[in-house]
Amino acid sequence: MIKIENLSRDWKEFQLDHINLEIKNNEYFVILGPSGSGKTLLLELIAGIWEVDSGDIYVDGKNMTWTPLEKRGVGFVYQNYMLFPHKTVFENIAFGLNMRKVDKEEVKTRVNEMMKLLHIDHLAHRLPRTLSGGEQQRTALARALIINPKVLLMDEPLSALDRKTRDDLIREMKELHQKFDITFVHVTHNFDEALALADRIAIMKDGRISQVGDSTEIFRHPKDKFVADFVGVENIIKGVARKDGAKITLIDTGSISIYTTEQKEGPVHVTVRPEDIILSNKKVETSARNVFEGKITEIIDNGALIKLTVDVGEPLIVFLTRQSFLDMELNIGRDVWTYFKATAVHTF
Amino acid sequence: MRKLDHTTIFFALMGSFLFFFVLIPIVNLMVSANPGIILNNIQDPSVMSALFLSIYAALAATIIALLFGVPLAYLLARNDFWGKGFVESVIDVPLVIPHTVSGIILLLVFNPGGIFGQPLSQIGLTFSDAIPGIIVAMLFASSSFVVNSSREGFESVDPRMEKVARTLGSGSLKTFFIITLPLSLRNVVVGSIMCWARAISEFGAIVILAYYPTTAPVLIYRRFVDFGLQESIPVAVLLISVCLVLFLIVRLLISGWKTYDKD
User: Fold this and answer.
1) Shortest Cα distance from A96 to chain B (angstroms)?
2) B138 and B84 in one domain?
């Protein structure tokens, strides 16, 4: 467990101001915030890359605030990889083991295993500059994981990668997290990443933590307007995706089944924009694949737009214009039908 | 073919002046020398011992500059501290003062009664008219090449790369030797060769601090004063050849050395 108490540090234009945070053992923890929020600085303070001005950092109950970074047992992965350019992929990954004077044969076996796990075994003798971004980040992950750190700290590890590579790595990092008994702390400004990976998320702004919670809590109940605007999503539902024909994926949320045209499998988050959902008083024939009946549980008057919550097994947020709302004579407890197209459903 | 505009042509004409101003005298010296006389000079023990002394003393000065200059360069590259600008200026001062003045400064402190010379004479080191004096004069004049070039190299290594190495279990001194130094080795080597070449050419400070034993530049001066231009040319050709070979090695290193971060 990582426990951060009253941590403060000034650094150039950034300022961390009495940060308090608890990260559980083996948790996948994401620190989410816009650039300039101080999230990288926080991560570097946990690693010991900089010294704190005040406050304490505990790892597994031990005060690590003033422990030299080589003795903290943390792994660190940077956005721009920071591979050693004069060493091959193999030598980069073997570095931590060689520092620990591990027997040569064992180093060989363990590095080969790690390279296989991250699908970079064919690159063993290449220098970092000849690798693609994705390959470099895999090497950096392998190099950090091989020393079995208590905590793996990652600073925007996926931000420099193209969409496809990033999706692949997100899936693999999830698997790696399950495979190793390591607490992952991942800093990002991208909420897709946070959604796809995090057990819990901390939202950071201007050097302060503004909210900590699991994804549902944060997205459903943003504590303040900043969090709401920053995450910017109304409908988020967890589910398990499986293929249903060549072009359609079916997501089972436990209470309803949602169709999407995106190709996914396994645990996912589903989002639907409220303006993509059509509401009607009675069942009608449409081309929309997702049709659910539910009761209105909440009505919020936002002026020109009315925000309704319809419980269809999962709470769905729907926007209506004032005129439609009045025409449909809606009120709390009323049964309605919701429709949205499979193409309007996005998954993370 | 690319069409040249007037500005490029004008600047090329102006710029070629300095190029030829340096090149023509050197080439002229090389071709005006009689190969037979140069061969005679190579067989002259006083010429060879002067050349050898210059190369050897300059090498010693370079090694001392490396030993003390590399740690200083790393400190300057990685830390901001009060008075840093002053330290940097002091290191560069020998480049901007006349070398004869350097010689006088050094003679004052390294003469047998001086603040450095007196204690060091206790352990048998004398500087006036002795090899240690030559080395000291060379070190004073050329050590800043090592410091400045090494520092540039250290600055080009991302400090975060060192931090990553440390999270992997490498101590800070070890990290310097296995990550930072190998990655900036080119700059350190280039700085050292520049330092060496500059030390071999040193005349002004040496002539004041240690006229004897005779280094090559002093020998050239003495021949010129005692016997005239013609007698000094062969030694000049030999010395310039040594310096040019060293300089050529530097240029080759700069262009050909494997850089890891670029294709």
Assistant:
1) 5
2) yes
- Say whether residue A47 is in contact with chain B using an 8 A CB cutoff: yes
CATH, residue B96: 1.10.3720.10
Q: How far, CA to CA in Å, does A324 sit from each of A218, A297, A340? A: 30, 18, 17
> Do residue A99 and residue B168 have CB atoms under 8 angstroms apart?
yes
CB atoms B168 and A144 under 8 Å: yes
Contact A96 B260 (CB under 8 A): no
For A280-303, letters b (16+ CB in 10 Å) and e give eeeeeeeebbbbbebebeeeeeee
Query: Structure pTM?
Result: 0.79
Same domain membership, residue B246 and residue B118? yes
Q: Quick one: B71 and B16 in the same domain?
A: no
Q: Do B168 and A68 touch (CB under 8 A)?
A: no
The count of structural domains within chain B is 2
H-run or E-run covering A169: helix A163-179
In single-letter form, the type of residue at position A297 comes to T
Q: Which domain holds residue B27?
A: 1-32
Nearest CA in chain B to A71: B169
Tell whether A74 lies on the interface with B, counting CB pairs under 8 A: yes
Three-state secondary structure call for residue A154? strand
> Nearest C-alpha of chain B: how many angstroms from A69?
6
Give mean pLDDT in consecutive 10-residue pieces for chain A, a chain of 348 residues: 89 83 93 87 91 90 88 90 94 95 94 94 93 94 94 92 89 91 92 87 89 81 73 79 85 88 83 84 83 89 84 87 85 88 82
